[in-house]
Design goal:
about 300 residues, alpha/beta, 10 strands, globular, TIM Barrel
Length: about 300
């Protein structure tokens, strides 16, 4: 593999046609994330996304769990796979987690879930971290066969990199002990070098499960900075300009084309394992899905600035 510092050089990427094909192939495995998709959002998704595409559903501490069940059921009814976030610290009891899983299984037929600690400063019940939910044994009892676990290539504001790496290994081992498959979903970021360095370390630690690299879908630079601050992601206007590009194409929004171009090129190295993009729909689920679908369909034009444009 070429050093990360060289992956952004056009000479490291093959011919323009080869590089465009690499980007298209990489994007065909995309997943999406939304908080409260509406009926209009799901209709927009149906127009462009492949059937059974995974749609991750963010956990919102202030919203009742029944709302998550209703949204997951609507996603399933629309023909997509709901992958709800389960925030460990938000469950007041084992019974509360058991009830939610039963409802999600009954109403939405969930097979996968993304486990996070959650935003509560203190646990409301017996689960302080995602690994506690894994070790509860409740997930496979309700038909869950695979879990997603969170990772932070750009670092975490309250947890050291060493501890983050240790937790990933511990959660993968705990999942294996309970018969659950695992994939990793990363927090969105802007620096391809940091992402690729983290991915190399992950594989060096012997973790070979699939990874979904978090990226912010098309939106405004102002919105990106706002979400980055809220989520604890290191970002600046200068960093966004350098790594995201902020080029305005037919969608008239800042898009992670430069990030995708670099990551896709680097991931042709099979040593990095199975890697796919995971798009956070800060600019709207429909707009994000249309943009991703256009790339997956090959409607792109490489730019000299290291990114690419998307055409209708």
């Amino acid at each position: 593999m070429l050093p990360v510092s060289q992956t952004s050089e056009p000479s490291a990427r093959g011919s323009p046609a080869e590089e465009a094909a690499t980007i298209v192939a990489f994007m065909r495995g995309y997943s999406l994330e939304a908080t409260r998709p509406t009926a209009a959002d799901l209709a927009a998704l149906q127009a462009v996304a492949p059937a059974e595409a995974p749609l991750y559903l963010s956990a919102v501490p202030s919203h009742p769990s029944e709302e998550l069940v209703e949204i997951a059921a609507a996603v399933r009814a629309a023909g997509f796979e709901p992958v709800p976030h389960l925030a460990a610290r938000g469950f007041a009891s084992r019974e509360a987690l058991d009830r939610l899983l039963a409802r999600l299984a009954e109403s939405a037929g969930i097979r996968r879930a993304l486990l996070v600690a959650g935003d509560h400063a203190r646990p409301l019940g017996p689960y302080a971290a995602a690994i506690d939910v894994i070790e509860s044994g409740l997930l496979p009892q309700h038909g869950v066969v695979e879990i997603g676990i969170a990772a932070y290539p750009g670092g975490h504001p309250r947890i050291s990199d060493y501890e983050l790496a240790r937790l990933v290994v511990a959660k993968v081992e705990a999942a294996a002990a309970t018969g659950l498959a695992v994939h990793i979903v990363t927090q969105f970021g802007f620096d391809p070098g940091a992402i690729l360095d983290w991915l190399e370390r992950l594989r060096g630690d012997g973790i070979d499960c699939p990874v979904r690299i978090g990226m912010a879908g098309p939106t405004s630079a102002t919105a990106l900075l706002r979400y980055a601050k809220r989520c604890g992601v290191a970002a600046s206007a200068q960093g966004l300009a350098q790594h995201v590009g902020l080029a305005k194409h037919v969608f008239s929004r800042a898009a992670p084309d430069g990030l995708i171009r670099t990551i896709a090129a680097a991931c042709t190295d099979t040593a990095l394992g199975r890697v796919a993009p995971h798009l956070y729909s800060f600019g709207g689920l429909g707009a994000t899905a249309r943009w991703a679908a256009a790339i997956a369909a090959g409607r792109i034009e490489l730019s000299s600035g290291g990114g690419f444009g998307v055409t209708p």
